[in-house]
Amino acid sequence: MKTTKELLGSRIKEIRKLRKLSQEELSEKINIDPKHLSRIEVGRGFPSLDTLERLADVLNVDIKDLFEFSHKAPSQRELKETLNSLLKEADEERLRLVVKIIKAVVR
To answer: Which of 7, 27, 36, 84 would staple 69 via disulfide (CB 3.0–4.6 Å)?
Structure first.
């Protein structure tokens, strides 16, 4: 599962591309180093509140729109990976319960 930082970065990149801006153009408009914007977009950095405000302004969105991730639902592969990691932590009793639940849902 993606972290909030990764989801935010992906969302900023998505909106930037919709606005047909390069990273260099956007970083210049919001007055940050292009490398910092790159780190934000890949989820390795987090923007300050001031930077978030400038991003929203330049991208012509509300700040809350930068945190709208619902359209980025996990893929089937990501769902299976999550399920597998949860199953690894379960004891036998819980595994039996999960199997019963899955059988009931799938049938």
So the answer is: 7
